[in-house]
Specification:
It contains twelve helices and ten strands. With about 300 residues, it is α/β, with parallel strands linked by helices. An eight-stranded parallel barrel has the order 1-2-3-4-5-6-7-8, surrounded by five helices. A two-stranded antiparallel sheet has the order 9-10. The chain starts with 19 loop residues before the first strand and ends in an 8-residue tail after the last helix. The structure holds coenzyme A (COA) and magnesium ion.
Amino acid sequence: MISSSENPGMVHRPVRARRSVLYVPADNARAMEKAADLSCDAVIFDLEDAVGPQDKERARNALSERFAVGSASDKEYVIRINALSGAWGRDDLDMACSCRPSAILLPKVDAVADIVDAETLLEERAAPPVLRLWAMMETPRGLSNALAIADTGSKPGGRLDCLVAGTNDLAKETGVVIPEGRPFMTSWLMQILLAARAAGLDALDGVYNDFRDIEGLRAECAEGRLMGFDGKTLIHPGQIEPANVAFGVSPQALADARAIVQAFADPENAGRGVIQLDGRMVERLHLEQAERLLKKAATQHIEGSEP
Ligand code: COA
Ligand code: MG
């Protein structure tokens, strides 16, 4: 991620592994109990689409109790609240503030104002700067405003850290069908990715609904990885391992990154912009990429990955 020393206007964001990000309905006690022991990098406790209208309050209370108990795990915990413009959003936000999760995920973000409104409410509640915002990109309007929305994260004091593709809502809103390979969804996914990268944010791919089809999931994870996503949002524990593998740092990538760092550290190469390594051209931009990959691998506890 972009560091404040490289780009003084930007907020410093630590590099984190977000290979596997599991939705857990906040009204499902059994699933909530299991979440801490699962090997996903992050959990999104959901108060929105996964919880029926009659269960919103019960789910909110259950989540509050869950955070009061705490967790020894170092994964990121995120709370997806209902839209702030609707009946439950404000109460969800109040509860989420008191839980101090890693981030609050805003659903159906349409415009910059949705982020600014949430930031204002967080400031009014004296939420610490470490409480971040993530945004669901899942409406036609939100996609059209993707860059402006993402840019709120690169302004000083901005809390937005991550864009999350909401492919089911996009399909519902547009009528696009999602067959294998997601041919008609790809350009929108890349739009989300581009907007995130322009602002130095992370981007997560959408969910794979057919949770018993692990081979199909592996194929979609591979596709998301090639598109540049940091990880995939998931709906079932059985999907975690394929996502961790697909979005993880492979031993080969780790070895390549270490070789690039070592090559540029060689006094012979001091100050050089471009060198050759095993017959390949390597530039300083590759060094930056390699250093970032090593940092990411360190967050996945891969041995020898410390830069
Ligand atoms: N998080 C944590 N645990 C989960 C889980 C999840 N998202 N989904 C399932 N589990 C647990 C179940 O509780 C069950 O635990 P147990 O065997 O120890 O009792 C185990 O995994 C196996 O579950 P399974 O029987 O295969 O599935 P299910 O029928 O219980 O649930 C879904 C299927 C799709 C309803 C469920 O996975 C789910 O609710 N996923 C999240 C949906 C969501 O959040 N959607 C909104 C965002 S798109
Ligand atoms: Mg949605």
